[in-house]
Design goal:
The complex is a heterotrimer of chains A (about 130), B (about 375) and C (about 425). Chain A has helices at about 75-85, 105-115, and strands at about 5, 15-20, 60-65, 90-95, 120-125. In chain A, helix 1 links the parallel strand 3 (about 60-65) and strand 4 (about 90-95). Chain A has a domain at about 55-125: Rossmann fold (3-Layer(aba) Sandwich). Mean pLDDT of chain A is about 70; it is low at about 20-45. Chain A is built from 2 helices and 5 strands, in the order E-E-E-H-E-H-E. The longest helix of chain A is centred in the middle third of the chain and has 15 residues, at about 75-85. By secondary structure, chain B is of the alpha+beta class. Helices cover about 30% and strands about 15% of the residues of chain B. In chain B, helix 7 (about 145-155) runs parallel beside helix 9 and helix 11 (about 275-285) crosses helix 13 (about 310-325). The termini of chain B are far apart. By secondary structure, chain C is of the alpha+beta class. Chain C folds into 2 domains: about 1-80, no CATH class; about 100-390, no CATH class. Chain C has 15 helices and 12 strands. Chain C has helices at about 1-5, 20-25, 45-55, 65-75, 80, 100-110, 125-130, 155-165, 175-185, 205-210, 225-240, 275-280, 305-315, 325-335, 340-350, and strands at about 10-15, 100, 140-145, 150-155, 195-200, 260-265, 285-295, 295-300, 320-325, 360-365, 370-375, 380-385. In chain C, the strands form 3 sheets. A 4-stranded mixed β-sheet of chain C has the order 6-5-7-12. A 4-stranded mixed β-sheet of chain C has the order 8-11-9-10. In chain C, helix 7 (about 125-130) crosses helix 8, helix 8 (about 155-165) packs across helix 9 and helix 9 (about 175-185) runs parallel beside helix 11. The chains are: A alpha/beta (about 130), B alpha+beta (about 375), C alpha+beta (about 425). Chains B and C meet through helix 4, helix 9, strand 6 and helix 12 of B and helix 2, helix 6, helix 11, strand 8 and helix 13 of C.
């Protein structure tokens, strides 16, 4: 046997590409739910993104609770709204469900929050 | 004994009645003779000399070593003879088999069983050494040998021949799980663990070579089953389970190591929800009989406890009642990495649970100086896990 | 929200994924202000959720609600104002030379295999594998990641050949693997649910490379079916960068990931048109089609009504169904009066309420039993193999390696054992 001979082999791994983001559409079975209208985020190369300026306080602000659709998210956000009612009653919270499934983008909702002058968003619950 | 069989065309199930009548009126496609007269003859024609004095054919014993050849030719020989699962093997040289045999104290020539994938064919006999040969081929190390010997001693093949397509499952319990680095946590059923991969595969190679599985000849699965590649080989996640380990439930001590074999057809991989949902899924499951083995993430077992089921027995009684089946047909296995409270429902039934300990050397499991381990997934303690 | 609308956002993810999320967002140059309640939040009593909200983030140890409020109100730091995207170094083409034994260990310990023995990808073997295509070894075939937002790894024709050698393939298999790689779909996409995949080959290449479409085609009795299915998983590990607990989060995993249910369709014995023809390819084209899902019910027996019942009862997260049926089943469906797959599809859509296009039919098997397998698999993509085949045809060995052919049974004239 050639057990102790030194051999050279090739690295099997792919090379870092600098390309991020979702794979092509049809990526998850959620597609099936609404094949015609589901917006697909096919943005491939993500440039660095800028974070928004923060609020000075939450008092009196309009905060959207956006349910991404994982099991338990709705219940968790309901409890969260309850917490605001008890502890920071001046905060106006609006519960919204993101469309389709936890993995798809929902530009219409973001547009709606923007149009209604939402001050901030609490997005959850990933899991 | 060569009985006087008569062969109508295949199949006779799920076809129109008129077609069956046609078979009866038609000819035997094997002999080419009219079917009914042949049947009458089978009952009335006097016995021939041969039929009066039946002889049982004996197959010659196989020599221990194959004729020496180059590595390339030997790989080809193994593939062309159907001695593998099609994936690369390690050639079982005398040196490698001898090293493998350090994994047990047992005499290499001790006969430990006989196997056939069919119920009617001659069974092939195998020794400790033959199991070591398979272990080498599958890519095992001596530390894995005791588990393979325990499986081999059950004489149960991973894919019993049936025209339905069986799949099987291997589950290991007890301290050996961690000693040989089996995965019972995250992605335990996927190809990310050395021991899970090679042990599961070795059962398939044993079934091919000891069980004499030859497709179309002794092996008649119409479609086959893709679980036959690895046989769902995993270890139970005893540490994170809210219930007692499976082998303890079967009367073994927690510190004993065991292997349990299951078989069935169906694997429902995605389910969520409480005990009621489990019962409903079992009730709806389409299979022969109403057996159910639930393969659940540790999170599920914790939730079931929260629901009020203190033991597996309580849960079993509840599900059996709701699903209108028998408690003894319901089993629970805990495995997974706690990333999602999901459970799989299978129609698997356990065949046997056997001890591994009797195959372990007196001085303990024979480990390499630095045992080979694939990267360990980080096991998650609920909520405090740093991945 | 943050970048486009300038609205501050407090994302919440359960603590199980804390490190995964933080690493992921770092790689995108935006470190969002996440809060992590304990995992999971699904299917647990309300009182637990209340406690989570009143309690601490187990990842940071700070009170959860204060953290969420801080996320929205605390001014941005310098680092947050000026995000950087880190770059990872590439891997050299060759690994440091070593003994065979050490290299086998290296591949296992690095998590570059499925745990089973591989053939070491030496330069000589990879060069031989590359004779299986005319494509330039340095041609980029695609980019893959098993996770949603991870950096994708790029791979060339040569990298596919490396994984082909490891899986035990011969050059005749390479065109199929290149077509699979070109889909850029991993066989084990990361999800906390545990995905299975399926791979079906159509067209003349099935016979040329000796794939099994007949008896026991889904079991480990065919060289091509075994190594092709395995190679897809090795590519998914090495191109998709699958590391359990890190990028790969399937809680229990799926056993089909070993071979990905790889087979050739039994076009010859099927009374229906082949799957790839249905998808717009010519019968003489060779293609690979991939599917994914969770459920595999191996024991279906009965007529169309029964099939619909089983599909309806299948617990799944998607309204999809793919039946994998023996040719005997296909013929008995025609006897029942369904002339085409389209008619069948309509029937099943009506019975289940699923969209017709989400229901598929594959024909495979050896006609020993009229059985069908019910799956919830969704069809992903069909890719042509032909463009990867050398101009002068598939590169076969002088004597191609073949495992024993199953005795294929033509209805009624097959000699079953006594």
């Amino acid at each position: 046997m050639t057990r102790n001979n030194v051999v050279t082999v090739l690295d099997p791994r792919g090379q870092p590409s600098g390309v991020f983001g979702r794979r092509s559409s049809g990526d998850n079975p959620g597609t099936i739910l609404s094949p015609r209208v589901r917006p697909v985020d096919d943005r491939e190369s993500m440039e660095k993104l800028q974070m928004a300026e923060r609020l000075d306080t939450l008092e009196g602000k309009l905060i959207y609770l956006v349910d991404v659709g994982f099991p338990g998210s709705k219940e968790f956000l309901e409890e969260l709204a309850e917490w605001f009612k008890e502890n920071m009653p001046s905060v106006k919270v609006v519960y919204k469900q993101k469309k389709f499934d936890p993995y798809s983008d929902d530009p219409e909702l973001w547009e709606e929050i923007h149009a209604n002058k939402g001050d901030g968003v609490i997005l959850g619950v990933g899991g | 004994m060569f009985l006087r069989y008569v062969f109508p065309p295949h199949p006779v199930g799920f076809i129109p009645k008129e077609k069956l009548r046609g078979y009866v009126d038609g000819i035997n496609p094997v002999s080419g003779k009219p079917l009914m007269p042949e049947m009458v003859e089978a009952l009335t024609k006097p016995l021939t000399e041969e039929e009066k004095n039946p002889v049982i054919e004996k197959r010659p014993k196989r020599p221990r070593l194959l004729p020496p050849d180059t590595e390339e030719n030997l790989y080809r020989l193994f593939i062309e003879n159907g001695w593998t699962d099609g994936n690369p093997i390690i050639l079982p040289t005398e040196e490698r088999v001898a090293e493998m045999l350090t994994g047990t104290d047992r005499d290499p020539q001790e006969v430990i069983g006989r196997m056939s994938v069919t119920t009617h064919q001659e069974r092939l006999e195998y020794t400790v050494e033959k199991v070591a040969v398979i272990a080498v081929m599958a890519g095992c190390r001596p530390e894995h040998l005791p588990v393979l010997l325990a499986i081999a001693a059950t004489e149960i093949p991973a894919f019993p021949s049936s025209t339905t397509s069986f799949s099987s499952m291997i589950m290991v319990n007890g301290p050996i799980r961690h000693e040989i680095g089996m995965n019972c946590g995250l992605a335990a059923l996927s190809p990310f663990n050395y021991a899970n991969s090679v042990i599961g595969r070795a059962w398939t190679l044993m079934s091919i070579n000891f069980g004499d599985a030859r497709p179309g000849d002794t092996f008649m699965h119409s479609l086959g089953h893709p679980i036959n590649y690895n046989n769902l080989c995993h270890a139970e996640n005893e540490e994170d389970s809210a219930f007692e380990p499976y082998h303890v439930e079967k009367g073994f001590k927690p510190e004993e190591s065991t292997v349990t074999l299951f078989r069935g057809w169906n694997y429902n991989g995605i389910n969520l929800g409480p005990a009621k949902a489990m019962a409903e899924a079992l009730k709806r499951q389409s299979s022969m009989g109403r057996a159910g083995t639930f393969i659940m993430d540790p999170l599920v077992s914790a939730h079931l406890k929260d629901e009020g089921f203190k033991t597996k027995e309580e849960l079993r009684q509840y599900i059996a009642k709701e699903a209108e089946t028998f408690p003894q047909m319901i089993n629970f296995i805990v495995v997974g990495g706690q990333t999602n409270p999901m459970w799989a429902l299978t129609d698997y039934t356990p065949s046997i649970t056997v001890s591994i300990d009797e195959w372990i050397p007196k001085t303990g499991i024979k480990k390499d100086e630095k045992p080979i381990r694939m990267p360990q997934p980080v096991l998650c303690k609920d909520g405090i896990c740093g991945i | 929200m943050e970048d486009h609308y300038n609205i501050p956002t407090a994302p919440i993810v359960t603590a199980r994924f804390a490190d995964y999320i933080l690493k992921d967002s770092r790689s995108h140059g935006m470190l969002l202000r996440y809060s992590f309640p304990p995992h999971p939040v699904g299917f647990i009593p309300r009182s637990h959720l209340k406690d989570y909200i009143k309690g601490n983030d187990p990842y940071t140890g700070k009170p959860l609600m204060q953290e969420i409020i801080d996320a929205l109100t605390k001014p941005l730091t310098e680092e947050e104002k000026n995000p950087v995207v880190p770059k990872r170094p590439g891997h050299p083409r060759l690994l440091p030379p070593d003994t065979e034994e050490n290299l086998h260990r290296l591949f296992l310990e690095s998590g570059w295999t499925d745990g089973l023995p591989i053939v070491l990808p030496t330069e000589e073997r990879v060069a031989e594998m590359l004779t299986g295509t005319d494509a330039d070894p340095n041609q980029v075939v695609g980019r893959m990641s098993i996770a949603y937002y991870e950096e994708k790894l790029e791979y060339t024709v040569e990298k596919v050949a490396v994984n082909a050698v490891m899986a035990g393939c011969r050059p005749e298999h390479l065109p199929v693997l290149l077509a699979i790689a070109a889909t850029q779909h991993p066989s084990l996409p990361s999800s906390t649910t545990s995905f299975a995949s399926m791979l079906c080959v159509n067209g003349p290449i099935r016979r040329e490379i000796g794939m099994n479409c007949g008896l026991a085609a889904l079991s480990p009795f065919n060289y091509a079916n075994s190594v092709i299915g395995r190679a897809w998983t090795l590519m998914s590990i090495n191109f998709g960068e699958a590391r359990p607990g890190d990028t790969f989060m399937a809680s229990t995993g799926h056993n089909l990931n070993y071979n990905n249910m790889t087979f050739g369709e039994n076009e010859e014995d099927s009374p229906f048109e082949p799957f790839h023809v249905e998808k717009g390819f010519k019968p003489e084209e060779s293609t690979v089609s991939i599917f994914r899902g969770w459920n595999v019910l191996g024991l279906g027996l009965g007529n169309a009504e029964e099939m619909a019942k089983v599909l309806r009862n299948l617990p799944s997260m998607a309204p999809t169904g793919t039946f994998v049926m023996d040719p005997l089943v296909a013929r008995s469906l025609i006897d029942e009066g369904f002339k085409t797959k389209e008619e069948l599809r309509k029937f099943f859509a009506e019975k289940t309420g699923y969209p017709p296009f989400a229901i598929n039919f594959m024909v495979v098997g050896g006609q020993t039993n009229p059985l069908w397998i019910t799956t919830d698999f969704v069809y992903t993509e069909t890719e042509s193999i032909d463009k990867w085949i050398p101009k002068d045809g598939i590169r076969k060995d002088k004597k191609p390696l073949r495992m024993p052919e199953p005795l294929v049974c033509k209805d009624g004239i097959c000699t079953l054992p006594g």
